[in-house]
Amino acid sequence: MAIPIIMPKQGQSVETCIITKWFKKKGEKIRTGDLLFSYETDKAAFDVESPSDGTLLEIFYGDGAEVPVLVNVAVLGNEGETIESFAPLKTNNGEIPAGTEKRTVNENLEIQGSGQVSVREPGDIKIRISPRAKRFADKNGVNYLNMSGSGPNGRIICSDVEKALTTPIVQPENIRKTVDEFTEQPISNVRKLVARAMFESLQNSAQLTHHMSADVRNLLGARSKIKEKIHSGAQQQDITLNDMVCWCVIRALEKFPDVNSHFLGDSKKIFNKVHLGIAVDTSRGLMVPVIKNADGMELIKLSKELKSAAESSRKGSINPELIQSTAASFTVSNLGNYGVEIFTPVINLPQSAILGVCTIINRPADLGNNTYGFIPYIGLSLTYDHRSVDGGPATLFLKEIKEQIEKFSL
What we know:
Blueprint: E1 3-6, E2 16-22, E3 29-30, E4 35-40, E5 45-49, E6 54-59, E7 66-68, E8 72-77, E9 102-106, E10 109-112, E11 117-121, E12 125-129, H1 131-140, H2 158-166, E13 178-179, E14 182-183, H3 189-203, E15 207-215, H4 217-232, H5 241-255, E16 261-263, E17 268-270, E18 276-278, E19 280-282, E20 285-287, E21 290-291, H6 299-315, E22 330-334, E23 353-368, E24 371-385, H7 391-406
Parallel strand pairs: 18-22, 22-23
Antiparallel strand pairs: 1-8, 2-4, 2-7, 3-6, 4-5, 6-8, 9-10, 10-11, 11-12, 13-14, 15-24, 16-17, 18-21, 19-20, 23-24
């Protein structure tokens, strides 16, 4: 009996996915568990395995096609079986999802049933380009607006963009102006999503930032001990300063649960567990994966989970549900490695606050007995939503983080 292979739905906010590669061909014999194709959302990549044995009777969408979720992309069955009822754009019950014949992705993009992207530019100029080619062009800053496509009906495909990377293209004046003083480049979709989220956060909340510094001699001492253990073979897991700071933040959140919350307008959701979000810089853009139930983890376990979440985010294999702003109860953003001395992090709404971790600076301080010297201090920048948390409790919470860092011990 023929069965459809559908585009899975990854997360409530995901409406379409892009097929990146088919590993099987039409007519090929398939076994249960065989890898059929890979696909990706804006920020994560996944694989689809065969649910049963059979023959791949038809593939409706090829590499690079952008497909609405829960839509049939292929048919698996026995040779000779009919596949008409599984035609493209039909779901398992045979209905055509509303809007999938011609779905507006944004004001300048339209996705056609074939997976082709039609780009509307000023002056009603239409450029036919595959989703894969457009993503590749955006990523590499290639201007495709007057590019000649080698695909069907002049469609621009990925090889056209690759060729353009080594062959300079002169853009007509009426399409995209490039002059000696500047060069215009399109903004990637991921950058647009981040920009929109940051703008809405600042526009729709009352954000204030408090700054404080903490003595990190204990953290640096612990870090030295960990390095010695790793070098001697007594320990394998490398625990970073950021891991230790996150550990201290979790302990502070346990004492100030009011900060470990979501502000919902007419109500406030205070979490009994700490779901820690950690900002990660990736090639796709900024991601904030969450470590669920981080308060119940030992330091070594927390360190492993933080590293795993960061690696999955950079590889694009993170679960989409774990990078939603609603998944975390509190977020930490560390710019210390970049040498940033002070900054103002922006809250991931509906979270009530976010901590920015800055670089370590040696400052003069009283060592006691009229002796002065330089002590390493780490900068801490707490941005909080004043609608959810008052200034007094926010300051006490930040002070608690400082004290947790200063009394830290392995």
